[in-house]
Amino acid sequence: MEIKFDFSRVLKNTFFLICSSILSKLFTLVFIVFAVRSLGVKEFGIYALVLSLISIFTVISDFGFYTLIVRDVSQDKSLSSKYLTHVLFLKIFFVILSYAGLYFLAYFLNYSLDVRIILMIAGIGLIADSLRNTLNAFFFVYQRIDMLSRLNALYSLINSIFGILILVSGYGLKGLFLGIASVNWLFLIITLFVILKNFTFLERKVEFIFLQHLIKQVFPFAFLTILSIVYFKMDTVMLSVFKDELTVGYYNAPYKLIEILMFIPVTFSAVLFPVVSSFSILSKKALSESYKWALKILTIIVFPIVMSCTILNKQIIEYLLGENYLVSGPVFVVLIWALLFIFINASAGNIIYNSTYLRSFIYFSTANTFLNLLLNVIFIPKYSFMGAGMVTLLTEITGMAINIYFLKKILFEFPSFREIFVKPVTAVLLMGIIILISKGLISNIYILILIIIASFAFYGWLLLRMKIISNDEKASIRNLFMKVN
């Protein structure tokens, strides 16, 4: 029996998650803009450095269990309680180890006492956040993205409100990270309660043999996940080592804007992962179809973002972050082009993670990460944050080449780049002409937003005229909105 790719189900889950992610990122954007302007460049640099280190150790403490749960339990939901019990047992060990590692790294890098104290406070939240992120896998397994969406949106809202109130009250970075830690623990308790009530239960005994099995199975995912976070966050750490907190601030202000936009490919890939996990066993043709569809959608989305941010980089930096960050304009352009390849690469991971080529892929991914670290060591001392941005762009391109190499081995039919890219490229070039013509009219943030919205609308109209969306995809979108309404 032929297995077809169910666009409606994926679109519905994507719809809920993207809606909540948009709300979450809007709340985050409001907070980031407020923090950038109220903390100053150096203090914001410390804030970004702490977040980068916390992100690295949060991923290390997760150790790939999130991905393992989604892959295995999606295929056999009777394993839910067993995975929940044993993964939580192992996670307690990993979060304690990560907290200790965070302290020793801060001491080894000779950070100031204030930075180390802030890191230890933030580490309290790391423990809860790591456990909560792993538990979120069960929402994807049971396709209850709507529940996760509401929790995530509420989490971001409370975090942003608390953050702004703490900064306004003058409690500084220590108070800010203590508030974040408190919110993380609150939502860990709420998430665990929701999962135990709706999906599964905790078993009374722990099997040592199954713990060994989990460690063996999770290692490839753990290794790749750690590589990924080192790849994305070590440039900030290296800037703090080779330069100073001021340089970290100049680099991370535009980088935070890029991170906010990264929610789109991350969300899309997260929704597709359990589907791809099933297709990798049931139907290679459906697997190829899902990749082609995901690549087409992500390409359509990212092209106008890259075009508008490239042309309007100065205005975006000035009106969102302030004149103090105009020096960050060139690196913002470089990072926005790196975002193009991040979008293109996003859906490839789902395919490769569920293939027999995973272990071979690890060697290539490791080489690309080491290339990133080596080039940062070479370019950051000489070119500062601009060097860090160029290295990110270069290694995203090499990462794309690696992904294409493996996808051609795995997929039943590799999609035609001409079929996917020609129409969006044509539309975005015409959109760019509109932006260039209207660029001189921008005198405040409201006109900037209006021009961006109008240019995106023009781009969308062009794509509709070019009939880039197939009839099946149009029908799926209509069904989605009928169900939602």
Task: Describe the structure concisely.
86% of the residues lie in helices and 0% in strands.
Give a written overview of the molecule.
The chain has 485 residues and is mainly alpha-helical. The protein has one domain. Helix content is 86%, strand content 0%. It has helices at residues 7-39, 41-62, 65-75, 80-108, 113-135, 137-141, 145-168, 172-198, 208-242, 245-261, 263-282, 284-311, 313-321, 329-346, 348-353, 358-410, 417-438, 445-465, 471-484.
State the end-to-end CA separation: 33 Å
Q: What percentage of residues falls in helices of 4 or more residues?
A: over 70%
Please tell me how large the radius of gyration is. 22 Å
Q: Indicate the overall shape.
A: globular
Number of domains: 1
The percent range for strand residues is: under 5%
**Overall pLDDT score:** 83
Tally of contiguous helical segments? 19
Low-confidence stretches: 1-5, 480-485
Secondary structure category: mainly alpha
Order of SSEs, N→C? HHHHHHHHHHHHHHHHHHH
The total of beta strands comes to 0
**Main pleated-sheet profile:** none
List the topology elements.
Elements: H1 7-39, H2 41-62, H3 65-75, H4 80-108, H5 113-135, H6 137-141, H7 145-168, H8 172-198, H9 208-242, H10 245-261, H11 263-282, H12 284-311, H13 313-321, H14 329-346, H15 348-353, H16 358-410, H17 417-438, H18 445-465, H19 471-484
Helix pairs in contact: 1-2, 1-7, 1-10, 1-11, 1-19, 2-4, 2-5, 2-9, 2-10, 3-11, 4-5, 5-8, 7-8, 9-10, 9-16, 10-14, 10-16, 11-12, 12-14, 12-17, 14-16, 17-18
